[in-house]
Amino acid sequence: MSVMNARSRPLIPRSGSRRPARGALAGALIAGLLALTACGTGTAEEDGRMTVVASFYPMEFLAEEIGGEHVSVSPLTKPGVEPHDLEISPRQTAELGEAGLVVYLKGFQPAVDRAVEQSGPEHVAEAGSYTELVEHGGGHEEEGHREESGEHGEVEAGHEEEHGEEHGGEHEGHEHGEGALDPHVWLDPVKYAEMAEGVGKALAEADPDHAADYRENAGELAGKLRDLDADFRAGLKDRRTDTFVTTHAAFGYLAERYGLHEESIAGLDPESGPSGAHLRELHTVVEEDGVGTVFLEPGADGGAAESLAADLKLRTDVLDPVEGVSDGSRGEDYLEIMRANLQALRKALGAR
Questions:
Q1: Please, what is the end-to-end C-alpha distance for the chain in angstroms?
Q2: Which residues have a Cβ under 8 Å from the Cβ of 26 and sit 6 or more positions away?
Q3: C-alpha 120: how far from chain center
Q4: Low-confidence ranges of the chain (pLDDT < 70)
Q5: Strand 50-54 and strand 71-75: pairing?
Protein backbone atom coordinates (compact mmCIF):
# COMPACT_ATOMS: atom_id res chain seq x y z
CA MET A 1 0.00 0.00 0.00
CA SER A 2 0.85 2.22 -4.19
CA VAL A 3 -1.22 4.85 -2.54
CA MET A 4 -0.50 8.26 -1.08
CA ASN A 5 1.76 9.81 1.42
CA ALA A 6 -0.34 10.63 4.43
CA ARG A 7 -0.47 11.85 7.97
CA SER A 8 -2.13 9.82 10.63
CA ARG A 9 -5.49 11.06 11.79
CA PRO A 10 -7.36 10.52 15.03
CA LEU A 11 -8.30 6.90 15.64
CA ILE A 12 -11.69 7.93 16.96
CA PRO A 13 -13.65 10.50 14.96
CA ARG A 14 -14.42 13.73 16.73
CA SER A 15 -18.02 14.78 17.03
CA GLY A 16 -19.24 16.05 13.71
CA SER A 17 -16.18 14.78 11.78
CA ARG A 18 -18.17 12.23 9.82
CA ARG A 19 -21.26 12.84 7.77
CA PRO A 20 -24.31 11.22 9.33
CA ALA A 21 -25.54 7.94 7.87
CA ARG A 22 -28.44 8.22 5.51
CA GLY A 23 -30.53 5.90 7.62
CA ALA A 24 -32.75 3.28 6.10
CA LEU A 25 -32.00 4.32 2.51
CA ALA A 26 -28.26 3.63 2.89
CA GLY A 27 -28.95 0.35 4.67
CA ALA A 28 -31.36 -0.77 1.98
CA LEU A 29 -28.89 0.19 -0.74
CA ILE A 30 -26.11 -1.86 0.82
CA ALA A 31 -28.40 -4.80 1.51
CA GLY A 32 -29.65 -4.74 -2.06
CA LEU A 33 -26.17 -4.66 -3.53
CA LEU A 34 -25.04 -7.47 -1.27
CA ALA A 35 -28.02 -9.55 -2.33
CA LEU A 36 -27.36 -8.89 -6.01
CA THR A 37 -23.71 -9.87 -5.79
CA ALA A 38 -23.91 -12.75 -3.32
CA CYS A 39 -25.22 -15.28 -5.81
CA GLY A 40 -22.36 -14.51 -8.19
CA THR A 41 -19.63 -14.45 -5.59
CA GLY A 42 -16.58 -15.91 -7.24
CA THR A 43 -13.22 -15.14 -5.72
CA ALA A 44 -11.25 -14.98 -8.98
CA GLU A 45 -10.60 -12.49 -11.74
CA GLU A 46 -11.07 -13.52 -15.37
CA ASP A 47 -7.40 -14.53 -15.52
CA GLY A 48 -7.88 -16.90 -12.57
CA ARG A 49 -6.26 -14.71 -9.91
CA MET A 50 -7.96 -14.36 -6.55
CA THR A 51 -9.27 -10.89 -5.70
CA VAL A 52 -7.73 -9.46 -2.52
CA VAL A 53 -9.01 -6.17 -1.06
CA ALA A 54 -6.43 -4.30 1.07
CA SER A 55 -7.39 -1.39 3.30
CA PHE A 56 -4.28 0.84 2.95
CA TYR A 57 -0.64 0.66 1.85
CA PRO A 58 0.99 -1.55 4.54
CA MET A 59 -1.78 -4.11 3.97
CA GLU A 60 -1.50 -3.74 0.19
CA PHE A 61 2.27 -4.32 0.36
CA LEU A 62 1.77 -7.55 2.31
CA ALA A 63 -0.92 -8.82 -0.06
CA GLU A 64 1.11 -8.08 -3.20
CA GLU A 65 4.40 -9.45 -1.90
CA ILE A 66 2.88 -12.64 -0.53
CA GLY A 67 0.13 -13.18 -3.09
CA GLY A 68 2.42 -12.65 -6.04
CA GLU A 69 1.10 -13.79 -9.40
CA HIS A 70 -1.88 -15.57 -7.89
CA VAL A 71 -3.75 -12.49 -6.66
CA SER A 72 -5.21 -9.24 -7.94
CA VAL A 73 -4.93 -6.67 -5.14
CA SER A 74 -7.47 -3.85 -4.94
CA PRO A 75 -6.61 -1.10 -2.41
CA LEU A 76 -9.51 0.66 -0.70
CA THR A 77 -7.40 3.76 -0.06
CA LYS A 78 -6.66 5.24 -3.47
CA PRO A 79 -3.82 7.65 -4.30
CA GLY A 80 -4.50 11.13 -2.95
CA VAL A 81 -6.80 9.93 -0.14
CA GLU A 82 -5.58 10.03 3.45
CA PRO A 83 -6.34 6.69 5.13
CA HIS A 84 -8.49 8.20 7.89
CA ASP A 85 -10.46 10.30 5.42
CA LEU A 86 -11.59 7.17 3.61
CA GLU A 87 -15.31 6.87 2.97
CA ILE A 88 -16.65 3.62 1.60
CA SER A 89 -19.58 3.48 -0.82
CA PRO A 90 -22.32 0.84 -0.73
CA ARG A 91 -20.82 -0.71 -3.87
CA GLN A 92 -17.39 -0.99 -2.24
CA THR A 93 -19.00 -2.58 0.78
CA ALA A 94 -20.61 -5.13 -1.51
CA GLU A 95 -17.25 -5.78 -3.19
CA LEU A 96 -15.73 -6.55 0.20
CA GLY A 97 -18.25 -9.37 0.56
CA GLU A 98 -17.21 -10.75 -2.85
CA ALA A 99 -13.44 -10.63 -2.26
CA GLY A 100 -11.48 -13.83 -1.95
CA LEU A 101 -9.68 -12.21 1.01
CA VAL A 102 -9.88 -8.87 2.82
CA VAL A 103 -6.66 -7.66 4.49
CA TYR A 104 -7.06 -4.80 6.96
CA LEU A 105 -5.92 -3.44 10.33
CA LYS A 106 -8.74 -3.12 12.82
CA GLY A 107 -8.93 0.22 14.62
CA PHE A 108 -6.96 2.21 12.05
CA GLN A 109 -9.77 3.10 9.65
CA PRO A 110 -13.21 3.07 11.30
CA ALA A 111 -14.99 3.16 7.93
CA VAL A 112 -13.24 -0.06 6.93
CA ASP A 113 -14.09 -1.71 10.24
CA ARG A 114 -17.77 -0.95 9.72
CA ALA A 115 -17.76 -2.08 6.10
CA VAL A 116 -16.06 -5.39 6.88
CA GLU A 117 -18.55 -6.09 9.65
CA GLN A 118 -21.48 -5.21 7.40
CA SER A 119 -20.34 -7.12 4.30
CA GLY A 120 -19.29 -10.32 6.10
CA PRO A 121 -16.55 -11.59 3.74
CA GLU A 122 -15.81 -15.29 4.02
CA HIS A 123 -12.05 -14.85 4.41
CA VAL A 124 -10.55 -11.99 6.42
CA ALA A 125 -6.96 -11.30 7.47
CA GLU A 126 -7.09 -8.78 10.34
CA ALA A 127 -3.38 -8.02 10.53
CA GLY A 128 -3.42 -6.80 14.11
CA SER A 129 -4.47 -10.26 15.28
CA TYR A 130 -1.11 -11.73 14.24
CA THR A 131 0.97 -9.68 16.67
CA GLU A 132 0.49 -7.65 19.85
CA LEU A 133 -0.70 -4.05 19.75
CA VAL A 134 0.11 -1.88 22.76
CA GLU A 135 -0.40 1.68 23.94
CA HIS A 136 2.16 4.35 23.20
CA GLY A 137 1.77 7.85 24.54
CA GLY A 138 3.15 11.06 23.13
CA GLY A 139 5.09 13.70 24.97
CA HIS A 140 7.65 13.67 27.76
CA GLU A 141 7.93 10.68 30.07
CA GLU A 142 9.69 10.23 33.37
CA GLU A 143 13.35 9.29 33.12
CA GLY A 144 12.87 5.94 34.85
CA HIS A 145 10.20 4.92 32.38
CA ARG A 146 12.39 6.02 29.47
CA GLU A 147 15.23 3.82 30.67
CA GLU A 148 12.84 0.92 31.15
CA SER A 149 11.45 1.47 27.64
CA GLY A 150 14.92 1.54 26.17
CA GLU A 151 15.83 -1.73 27.86
CA HIS A 152 12.65 -3.28 26.56
CA GLY A 153 13.60 -2.19 23.06
CA GLU A 154 16.54 -4.61 23.11
CA VAL A 155 14.32 -7.67 23.56
CA GLU A 156 15.33 -10.40 21.17
CA ALA A 157 13.17 -10.94 18.10
CA GLY A 158 12.52 -14.57 19.04
CA HIS A 159 10.89 -13.54 22.30
CA GLU A 160 8.70 -11.03 20.47
CA GLU A 161 7.58 -13.71 18.02
CA GLU A 162 6.65 -16.03 20.87
CA HIS A 163 4.82 -13.20 22.62
CA GLY A 164 2.96 -12.37 19.43
CA GLU A 165 1.77 -15.98 19.12
CA GLU A 166 0.47 -15.90 22.68
CA HIS A 167 -1.54 -12.74 22.05
CA GLY A 168 -2.46 -13.10 18.38
CA GLY A 169 -6.10 -13.24 17.43
CA GLU A 170 -7.51 -11.84 20.67
CA HIS A 171 -7.96 -8.10 20.56
CA GLU A 172 -9.45 -8.28 24.02
CA GLY A 173 -5.98 -9.24 25.19
CA HIS A 174 -4.62 -6.00 23.76
CA GLU A 175 -6.44 -3.76 26.21
CA HIS A 176 -4.08 -1.76 28.42
CA GLY A 177 -5.92 0.56 30.74
CA GLU A 178 -8.09 3.30 29.31
CA GLY A 179 -5.76 4.55 26.57
CA ALA A 180 -6.01 3.81 22.87
CA LEU A 181 -3.90 1.12 21.27
CA ASP A 182 -1.25 2.44 18.92
CA PRO A 183 -2.06 1.13 15.41
CA HIS A 184 1.31 2.01 13.77
CA VAL A 185 2.60 -1.53 14.30
CA TRP A 186 4.01 -1.94 10.78
CA LEU A 187 6.84 0.46 11.70
CA ASP A 188 8.38 -2.33 13.79
CA PRO A 189 9.91 -4.70 11.21
CA VAL A 190 9.72 -7.70 13.57
CA LYS A 191 6.03 -7.21 14.27
CA TYR A 192 5.42 -6.55 10.57
CA ALA A 193 7.11 -9.90 9.84
CA GLU A 194 4.65 -11.58 12.22
CA MET A 195 1.83 -9.91 10.31
CA ALA A 196 3.31 -11.14 7.01
CA GLU A 197 3.32 -14.73 8.23
CA GLY A 198 -0.29 -14.39 9.39
CA VAL A 199 -1.41 -12.97 6.04
CA GLY A 200 0.38 -15.85 4.31
CA LYS A 201 -1.66 -18.36 6.31
CA ALA A 202 -4.87 -16.46 5.54
CA LEU A 203 -4.11 -16.51 1.80
CA ALA A 204 -3.39 -20.24 1.97
CA GLU A 205 -6.75 -20.87 3.65
CA ALA A 206 -8.61 -18.73 1.11
CA ASP A 207 -6.84 -20.27 -1.90
CA PRO A 208 -5.59 -23.77 -0.98
CA ASP A 209 -4.47 -24.53 -4.55
CA HIS A 210 -1.59 -22.08 -4.16
CA ALA A 211 -0.98 -22.53 -0.44
CA ALA A 212 2.62 -23.65 -0.87
CA ASP A 213 3.50 -20.53 -2.85
CA TYR A 214 1.86 -18.26 -0.28
CA ARG A 215 3.76 -19.89 2.56
CA GLU A 216 7.03 -19.60 0.66
CA ASN A 217 6.44 -15.95 -0.26
CA ALA A 218 5.44 -15.09 3.31
CA GLY A 219 8.60 -16.71 4.61
CA GLU A 220 10.74 -14.78 2.12
CA LEU A 221 9.11 -11.46 3.04
CA ALA A 222 9.44 -12.18 6.76
CA GLY A 223 13.12 -12.87 6.14
CA LYS A 224 13.56 -9.52 4.37
CA LEU A 225 11.84 -7.77 7.27
CA ARG A 226 14.11 -9.45 9.81
CA ASP A 227 17.09 -8.40 7.69
CA LEU A 228 15.71 -4.85 7.92
CA ASP A 229 15.50 -5.27 11.69
CA ALA A 230 19.16 -6.35 11.75
CA ASP A 231 20.10 -3.28 9.70
CA PHE A 232 18.33 -1.01 12.19
CA ARG A 233 20.04 -2.67 15.14
CA ALA A 234 23.47 -2.38 13.57
CA GLY A 235 22.88 1.09 12.15
CA LEU A 236 21.70 2.63 15.41
CA LYS A 237 24.56 1.42 17.58
CA ASP A 238 27.05 3.88 19.08
CA ARG A 239 24.62 6.78 18.87
CA ARG A 240 25.09 10.10 20.62
CA THR A 241 21.50 10.37 21.89
CA ASP A 242 18.43 8.14 22.12
CA THR A 243 15.86 10.92 21.75
CA PHE A 244 14.20 12.07 18.55
CA VAL A 245 11.39 14.58 18.07
CA THR A 246 8.45 14.01 15.70
CA THR A 247 5.31 15.87 14.76
CA HIS A 248 3.08 13.21 16.33
CA ALA A 249 3.49 9.88 18.07
CA ALA A 250 3.62 7.53 15.09
CA PHE A 251 6.94 5.86 15.87
CA GLY A 252 6.34 4.29 19.27
CA TYR A 253 6.84 0.71 18.09
CA LEU A 254 10.05 1.61 16.25
CA ALA A 255 11.37 3.47 19.29
CA GLU A 256 10.52 0.59 21.62
CA ARG A 257 12.15 -1.97 19.36
CA TYR A 258 15.51 -0.17 19.19
CA GLY A 259 15.72 1.37 22.64
CA LEU A 260 14.98 4.90 21.45
CA HIS A 261 12.80 7.60 22.98
CA GLU A 262 10.27 9.41 20.82
CA GLU A 263 9.26 12.89 21.90
CA SER A 264 6.21 14.00 19.92
CA ILE A 265 4.71 17.43 19.56
CA ALA A 266 1.23 15.89 19.32
CA GLY A 267 0.09 12.48 20.52
CA LEU A 268 -1.46 9.73 18.42
CA ASP A 269 -3.89 12.39 17.22
CA PRO A 270 -1.88 14.84 15.09
CA GLU A 271 -4.78 17.29 15.01
CA SER A 272 -4.60 17.97 18.75
CA GLY A 273 -2.26 20.94 19.05
CA PRO A 274 0.35 20.96 21.82
CA SER A 275 -0.19 23.04 24.93
CA GLY A 276 2.17 25.82 25.88
CA ALA A 277 3.35 23.75 28.84
CA HIS A 278 4.19 20.81 26.58
CA LEU A 279 6.15 23.02 24.20
CA ARG A 280 8.14 24.41 27.13
CA GLU A 281 8.81 20.84 28.24
CA LEU A 282 10.01 19.97 24.76
CA HIS A 283 12.46 22.88 24.89
CA THR A 284 13.94 21.36 28.06
CA VAL A 285 14.09 17.84 26.59
CA VAL A 286 15.80 19.08 23.42
CA GLU A 287 18.49 20.85 25.45
CA GLU A 288 19.02 18.07 28.00
CA ASP A 289 19.08 15.21 25.48
CA GLY A 290 21.14 16.93 22.82
CA VAL A 291 18.47 16.81 20.13
CA GLY A 292 19.53 18.48 16.89
CA THR A 293 16.70 17.53 14.51
CA VAL A 294 12.93 17.83 14.41
CA PHE A 295 11.29 15.29 12.12
CA LEU A 296 8.44 16.26 9.80
CA GLU A 297 6.20 13.91 7.83
CA PRO A 298 6.34 14.03 4.03
CA GLY A 299 3.68 16.22 2.50
CA ALA A 300 2.34 17.36 5.87
CA ASP A 301 2.09 20.90 7.23
CA GLY A 302 5.08 21.43 9.51
CA GLY A 303 3.20 23.83 11.78
CA ALA A 304 4.36 23.57 15.37
CA ALA A 305 7.29 21.33 14.41
CA GLU A 306 8.83 23.96 12.15
CA SER A 307 8.20 26.64 14.78
CA LEU A 308 9.95 24.53 17.41
CA ALA A 309 12.90 23.95 15.08
CA ALA A 310 13.15 27.66 14.29
CA ASP A 311 12.94 28.68 17.96
CA LEU A 312 15.73 26.28 18.98
CA LYS A 313 17.78 26.58 15.78
CA LEU A 314 17.36 22.89 14.96
CA ARG A 315 17.47 21.29 11.54
CA THR A 316 14.43 19.54 10.09
CA ASP A 317 14.30 16.24 8.26
CA VAL A 318 11.67 13.71 7.16
CA LEU A 319 10.66 10.54 8.99
CA ASP A 320 8.03 8.69 6.99
CA PRO A 321 5.26 6.71 8.75
CA VAL A 322 4.82 4.72 5.50
CA GLU A 323 1.04 4.97 5.41
CA GLY A 324 1.29 5.45 1.67
CA VAL A 325 3.74 5.93 -1.19
CA SER A 326 3.86 8.96 -3.47
CA ASP A 327 6.24 10.67 -5.86
CA GLY A 328 7.68 12.49 -2.86
CA SER A 329 8.50 9.34 -0.91
CA ARG A 330 12.15 8.46 -0.31
CA GLY A 331 11.73 5.06 -1.90
CA GLU A 332 9.35 3.04 -4.01
CA ASP A 333 8.13 0.56 -1.41
CA TYR A 334 8.06 -0.15 2.32
CA LEU A 335 11.57 -1.59 2.49
CA GLU A 336 13.20 1.32 0.64
CA ILE A 337 11.35 3.95 2.66
CA MET A 338 12.22 2.28 5.96
CA ARG A 339 15.90 2.20 5.01
CA ALA A 340 15.66 5.91 4.20
CA ASN A 341 14.14 6.36 7.68
CA LEU A 342 17.10 4.51 9.16
CA GLN A 343 19.58 6.87 7.50
CA ALA A 344 17.62 9.90 8.71
CA LEU A 345 17.62 8.53 12.27
CA ARG A 346 21.33 7.71 12.14
CA LYS A 347 22.11 11.29 11.18
CA ALA A 348 19.77 12.79 13.79
CA LEU A 349 20.98 10.53 16.63
CA GLY A 350 24.67 10.88 15.79
CA ALA A 351 25.21 7.17 15.10
CA ARG A 352 28.71 6.32 13.93
A1: 33
A2: 90
A3: 23
A4: 1-46, 137-179, 266-275, 301
A5: parallel
